[in-house]
Design goal:
Elements lengths: L3 E6 L5 H13 L4 E2 L12 H8 L1 E7 L8 H17 L6 E4 L17 E3 L7 H17 L15 E2 L13 H12 L14 E5 L6 H11 L8 E5 L8 H15 L11 H15 L3 E8 L5 H5 L9 E7 L10 E3 L5 H11 L5 H13 L4 H13 L6 H10 L5 H7 L8 H11 L6 E2 H11 L6 H10 L4 E3 L2 E3 L2 H10 L6 H15 L5 H4 L2 H8 L6 H17 L3 H11 L7 H13 L3 H14 L5 H16 L3 H14 L21 H16 L3 H16 L3 H21 L3 H17 L6 H15 L10 H21 L5 H16 L3 H18 L5 H16 L3 H19 L4 H16 L3 H19 L4 H11 L5 H12 L9
Parallel strand pairs: 1-2, 1-3, 3-4, 4-5, 6-8, 7-10, 7-11, 8-9, 9-10
Antiparallel strand pairs: 12-14, 13-14
Helix pairs in contact: 1-33, 5-6, 7-8, 10-11, 10-12, 11-13, 14-18, 15-18, 16-19, 19-22, 21-22, 22-23, 23-24, 24-25, 24-26, 25-26, 26-27, 26-28, 28-29, 28-30, 29-30, 30-31, 30-32, 31-32, 32-33, 33-34, 34-35, 34-36, 35-36, 36-37, 36-38, 37-38, 38-39, 39-40
Length: about 950
């Protein structure tokens, strides 16, 4: 096999981005291996293994999903171990991090890797930087990564089967173990003042032994001196020395150290084994499993072999003071993804509903491996007897499902102090949300000020593995919370604790910035607590609504507003905020209700009444009822001008002193209303004016609104053949949210959608487009579609809009069969959600007509085009771009089906009308001119031309 400059490692979901990067690097004369046939979840093939060994560098596209793929871990491990042999673990690695943070990156050695920005569409500067990083790596290494022979595992000296059968995931924890054991080899990364030893701690049933065995198997290439496993299960503090000596003697016999080991004591055995490993001069792994949790530190020291830095030691225990003299890896709950994979090992599922059901069960079991394995086996043994969803529901509702795990931690609760019990009682109210140490101190001090130091109490909980410290926050495992709920008497009445905690949360809201933000998950759990007073629950929901709205999470905000507004007589400002949240969430019926109630409740001189009218108009627009919305927009315009002729009246609300958020939002809504009605030129002028206005406002006032105005501007640019400008505008919005740490804000997601559409819509003079950009745009829309289905629901307005654009993406990629199937289902859902006359439904029907046309099903294409054109003409008028596109498609379909003259009349009408709305420099106008020029040709010739221009292979399986 030829040598490669670059082996590109990526997760299956990132295939399109990886292909685009590989293509760009190949154009720059770099040889790149990329597995063209990779699929999500697949393992390592022989071809991949050979290519990896034959590559000089590893380029890692390290997205958030990368760590969960086994093949990715194999490839990364191979490059790191190859680097270890050469003295620099990351000497052959370049990392592309497309995420806004670095929390998903591990192991710690990657902090010394060469990093590059993820190239966006057409980002030449980022590609230059990436090429430079790769060439610098190539210039500093010799040869290739080389053959690591991962299938040739080290010798296991243990009374157990090598490896960990059925083990899944936990890659982060495996890398933590490896980084701690190998830290001394990289003093430039961090200072290390101890030997290669690590303690692996966790509650009973957490999978500590399985993790150590999986690590020894996965990283076996780093330990050619063998894996030596000593099992102390069942040993007590009094007999641990005897048990350890017995295990040492077994190892010595296996190593054939001679007859003297039969008479040697523990110290002599330790010396003999140490001398053997030291003489062998090959790195070895020494695992001591199941240490008694209360073992004296001096006894622990005696379990360490005096064999120098080539012997790497892992000590496994439930808890204990080991952190005082060695690094510790604490094994907590499995991640939600790993927990579901473990359940699927025993109970494979096919449907999305079944996968969601397993996710609920995994959450109920708190990611506890033993409980997950037991539940998985119950599901496996009952397969075929009843649906998986019913089985899962039974387990979730069964209070005994956690009994085996609770029994393992129950005894650890007995010696707790009142202060420690109060901390656990507090944790039971928060449904698992980590709590800042400062907040815990406030609550404990208020309720139990007389007891000892809280820091000692928290440290004691950590030593008992009843709580985990995450920087300055503390988290209590679900199993521990359930055990505390069942078996600990309350230190103070639960009602009193709930009242005090709620007061503390409401007092801190907005006062401490990040600190109060981190308390929101706890507040959400407390707002549902049955012992919290109703008015306090409403206040908590109101606080949570504002928090989620500021973060661009409208679905969550709307849910909390619903709960906050469900009791009593809501105030007008709260109704307005509720309507705004539902509008942003695409839930237009509820937005209409709240806006109507606010308008009726507002006093005549209340400016909120006008804002309510504007919100009502936007809700009606969203429902496709533009005629009903028009009088409300007229009422808003009567109060102050909103049109594009800004500056002519001197009364523009945006230029008045004291410009408020409500007026900005009204202007944004009116701008969108002009676009929806096809008044593109006026809308474009208004968009430019609004962007310029907000750009001069203080960022704290205009930030999100400015980005929303830019999104509207990008959509209008896209509709008026300014695709390049639309891409730049949408990218500026993405950058703003990336810079502010809000990549999932609804505006950021919308900007991604617009950017994808902009790449799928070519400029008239864009002669050499890159198909990789189309594929990446389609992948973006597909990913957003799935995400919105999960967060907003399949029938939500935003979800359905993205479904329509994904269908368009399939058409742009030449996949009409897939597009026809997808759009047929989407039209059906749109009919149920919005009705057949809604503009979104009509646009979907027009795209469906195009899929039939691409498949040369011309009669069906004509029928659907006529339905779309008739509906759009009635709802949006003759000049709207969507109407003109439908009119053009119908004209072509008529010609192709033999109605030559009516079709030409349609095409001529588009040619005459398009310039007044969209200008002449666009595809639609150019196509209409060309079509009318070809009008003299008979229909048979049109069909032949259509066949020639569309005669390409369809690749419906490749995206």
């Amino acid at each position: 096999m030829n040598a490669y400059d670059v082996f590109l490692s990526f997760g299956g979901h990132d295939r399109v981005k990886a292909e685009r990067i590989a293509q760009a690097l190949r154009k720059r004369d770099l040889t790149v291996f990329l597995d063209e046939n990779i699929r999500t979840g697949e393992g390592v093939t022989e071809t991949v293994e050979r290519a990896l060994a034959s590559s000089r560098t590893l380029l890692v596209y390290y997205s958030a999903g990368y760590p969960s793929r086994y093949a990715c871990q194999f490839e990364l491990t191979a490059a790191l171990l190859a680097g270890q042999r050469e003295g620099d673990p990351t000497g052959r690695i370049v990392v592309i991090n497309p995420e806004p943070s670095e929390e998903h990156l591990f192991p710690v050695e990657l902090t010394d890797a060469s990093f590059a920005r993820a190239p966006r569409y057409g980002d030449k500067a980022a590609l230059d930087d990436l090429e430079g990083a790769i060439r610098r790596r190539l210039g500093s290494v010799r040869g290739t990564i080389g053959e690591l022979r991962f299938t040739e595992r080290p010798r296991w000296i243990a009374d157990r089967v090598a490896g960990a059968h059925g083990f899944v995931g936990r890659y982060r924890e495996q890398w933590q173990v490896h980084s701690q054991l190998r830290a001394g080899a990289y003093p430039m990364v961090r200072q290390v003042m101890g030997g290669p030893v690590v303690a692996l701690l966790g509650v009973a049933g957490a999978g500590k032994s399985a993790l150590a065995a999986a690590y020894a198997w996965q990283f076996g290439g780093a330990y050619p001196g063998g894996v030596h496993w000593l099992d102390l299960s069942g040993a007590t503090v009094s007999d641990v020395a005897t048990r350890y000596a017995q295990e040492l003697r077994r190892v010595a016999r296996t190593l054939r150290l001679g007859p003297r080991v039969e008479r040697a004591d523990a110290a002599e055995l330790s010396a003999a084994v140490s001398d053997h490993l030291l003489t062998a001069a090959r790195p070895a792994l020494w695992v001591v499993d199941d240490l008694p949790p209360d073992l004296d530190p001096r006894e622990v020291q005696r379990l360490l072999l005096p064999a120098g830095p080539l012997v790497h030691t892992v000590l496994i225990s439930r808890h204990g003071p080991l952190a005082e003299f060695m690094p510790v890896v604490e094994l907590g709950a499995m991640s939600a993804e790993d927990a579901q994979v473990l359940l699927r090992e025993d109970c494979p599922v096919d449907s999305e509903d079944e996968r969601r059901a397993l996710g609920v069960l995994a959450e109920r079991l708190g990611g506890h491996p033993l409980s997950l394995r037991l539940a998985g086996r119950q599901l496996r043994d009952r397969q075929g007897l009843c649906p998986v969803g019913d089985q899962v529901r039974r387990l979730v509702e069964d209070p005994t499902v956690l009994d085996p795990a609770i029994g393992l931690v129950r005894t650890g609760l007995d010696p707790l102090t009142a202060q420690q019990r109060l901390v656990l009682q507090l944790a039971t109210m928060g449904a698992g949300a980590p709590l800042p140490a400062g907040f815990i101190a406030d609550v404990v001090t208020a309720l139990h000020p007389s007891e000892g130091d809280l820091g000692d109490a928290l440290a004691g909980l950590r030593e008992l593995m009843l709580a985990t410290r995450i920087e300055d926050r503390w988290e209590v495992h679900a199993i521990v919370r359930e055990a505390a709920r069942r078996h600990l008497d309350p230190v103070v009445p639960d009602a009193e604790l709930a009242r005090l905690v709620a007061e503390q949360l409401l007092e801190q809201s907005g006062e401490h910035g990040t600190e109060s933000d981190r308390l929101m998950p706890f507040a959400a759990a407390l707002a549902r607590h049955p012992l919290v007073a109703l008015d306090t629950c409403c206040a908590l929901h109101r606080m949570l609504s504002v928090f989620h709205q500021e973060r661009g999470e409208p679905v969550e905000a709307a849910q909390h507003w619903d709960r906050a507004l469900a009791s009593g007589v809501p105030a007008v400002p709260d109704l307005l905020r509720g309507a705004r949240a539902h509008l942003d969430a695409g839930q237009y019926e509820q937005a209409e209700e709240y806006a109507s109630r606010a308008r009726e409740a507002a006093a005549p001189d209340d400016p909120g009444g006008l804002f309510a009218v504007g919100l009502l108009a936007q809700a009606l627009d969203g429902l496709g009822r533009s005629e009903a919305a028009d009088p409300h927009w007229a009422a808003v315009r009567a109060a102050f001008p909103l049109s594009g002729d800004i500056g002519h009246t001197g009364v523009d609300p945006g230029s008045e002193p004291g410009l408020d958020q409500a007026r900005i939002e009204l202007r944004l809504g009116y701008l969108k209303s002009r676009r929806l009605r096809g008044d593109m030129r006026a809308a474009l002028a208004h968009a430019h004016a609004l962007v310029n206005l907000l750009a001069h406002e203080p960022p704290e006032r205009a930030g999100h609104h400015l980005q929303a105005a830019r999104i509207e501007l990008a959509i209008l640019q896209l509709s008026t053949n300014a695709q390049r400008e639309a891409r730049q505008t949408a990218e500026s919005v993405q950058r703003w949210y990336d810079d502010h740490g809000l990549p999932d804000h609804m505006n950021a997601v919308t900007a991604q959608t617009v950017l994808a559409q902009a790449w799928l819509t070519l400029h008239l003079l864009e002669l050499h487009p890159d198909p990789a950009n189309w594929r990446e745009a389609a992948e973006t829309l597909g990913r957003q579609r799935e995400q919105l289905r999960r967060s907003h629901g399949p029938m939500n307005g935003r979800t359905l809009s993205t479904d329509v654009e994904y269908g368009n993406a399939l058409l742009c990629l030449g996949r009409p069969t897939a597009a026809r199937e997808h759009l047929t289902e989407t039209v059906s859902r749109l009919d149920r959600r919005h009705g057949a006359r809604h503009p979104m439904t009509l646009r979907a029907r027009l795209l469906l007509a195009r899929s039939h046309a691409q498949l040369r099903e011309y009669d069906r294409a004509k029928e659907l085009s006529e339905q779309a054109y008739t509906g759009l003409l009635a709802t949006l008028g003759p000049c709207h771009p969507d109407t003109l596109h439908a009119q053009y498609d119908l004209g072509v379909a008529l010609v192709l089906t033999g109605s030559h003259r009516p079709g030409l009349r349609m095409l001529s009408a588009v040619r005459r009308t398009a310039p007044s709305t969209m200008g002449r420099k666009n595809d639609l106008y150019a196509q209409s001119v060309a079509a009318t020029a070809l009008g003299v040709l008979p229909g048979a010739v049109w069909r032949m031309v259509d066949r020639l221009t569309k005669d390409r292979p369809h690749t419906d399986e490749t995206l």
